[in-house]
Design a protein that fits this description.
The protein is built from four helices and three strands; from the N terminus they run βααββαα. It has about 80 residues and is of the alpha+beta class. It is about 55% helix and about 10% strand. The two termini are about 30 Å apart. It is elongated and about 55 Å long. A three-stranded antiparallel sheet has the order 1-3-2. α1 crosses α2.
Length: about 80
């Protein structure tokens, strides 16, 4: 990610992750993505470095899954064509 603001809104994070704000809110509320509440209305903000750490963890988890579940030729034959 290019240098930018230190803190991101949930909408900003959703755009970066190409997901919904509701999904990002769920990640925050489950404690998977650290965030802080600021202001009188308690708006959530995610620090850019925390988002990068989350992305790194997700890559690590995906790598572990792929290592534990190797793709086989039989699966390739069962897969519908990608469009």
């Amino acid at each position: 990610m290019a240098p930018g603001p230190r803190f991101l809104t949930l909408a900003d994070v959703a755009e970066i992750l190409n997901t919904s704000s509701a999904q990002v809110y769920a990640l925050v509320r489950r404690g998977e993505l650290p965030a802080i509440k600021i202001g009188g209305r308690g708006q959530w903000r995610v620090e850019s470095s925390q988002l990068e750490a989350y992305i790194d963890r997700m890559y690590d988890e995906a790598r572990a899954f792929v290592d534990a579940h190797p793709f086989t030729e039989a699966e390739a034959k069962d897969e519908p064509p990608v469009r």
